[in-house]
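Backbone Fold Data
Goal — fold tokens
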Amino acid sequence: MEVVTNVPQGARSVPENENVVSNEPFGRDRKYVVTYAFDEQLAPVVPLIPALDLTDITAARAELAALIESMPPPADTADVEIADVAAAGVTGSPDVRLRIYRPHTTSAELLPAIYDIHGGGFVLGSTAIGEIPNRQLAAEVQAVVVSVEYRLAPEEPFPAGLEDCYAGLTWLADHAAEIGVDASRIVLYGASAGGGLAAALALLARDRGGPAIAFQALSYPQLDDRLGTSSMREYIDTPMWTRPLAELSWNAYLGAGVPGGSDVSHYAAPARATDLAGLPPAYISVMHFDPLRDEGIAYAQALLAAGNTVELHLFPGTFHGSAIVQSAEVSLREAAERSEVILRAIQSRPPVNG
């Protein structure tokens, strides 16, 4: 299969004799045969990426679980301890499972915490998605990483998942000293739908007078149910995430026919928030050929206009989740920068001694 890497932004190229059904966005046998000006180290991998099909969420979850199970075991992580705890959910809700990654240290100093919210379009995934990167992040940044297992849509639509995230965050703040964490240095981190939930959690914590958040790191966040940006309208055939998938995702999270309406809460879709003042400093990364690109950029601009400190980075030639190609130079830069900005944010606050 031909891979086109030198075409103008937005241009499409279909190899000759390739049978393409352009109006069929779903199907697990579908291959990505339409390409953009991807980074030259990412482009050869694009045709090998399996298509995501959210028309059958049960099957998609099983496929994702099998994929995670098939991944090679992480490198030596003897310097990271892992424990699972249960946090009390909101009234009438089940407990929320948290997975804690703690680097070994002989210091009495309390460590910062990174509160990780996994992605998956609000309908897929678990803490298992972040198993390897969370181990690495804990060791690299010397922080306690706490990953939350929130309820998924459509079985548990908004606000169930967000309330689980809030319950877990509250547990972390309340039990900080117990697990060796400095409660004044809690960082929110999430990618894709996890980034959207992290942004919503920052709003919710501010408005409820909840735990103090030192920093929010949002990777290509899913923020806007209205699907009206240029990138969302254009990218209907990009790897990993497309407008049709976004439509299914938001309908599952909010309820069929609800997305785009006038009654959607800004805690569900933070792009709708009209008051962004007083939020934690933010780092937002967006990917080049990603339907979510422009809403991430717009949110960064809105945070800045509201008087918040914001750092924004668009990684050229990338696509949604392209960091799965871990050896690509742009993926290495993306991961290194994320760790760097989190570490810098943590170091800007003096540690509390235990």
The first strand starts at residue 80 and ends at 87. Residues 329-347 form the longest helix (19 residues). The two ends are 58 Å apart (CA to CA).
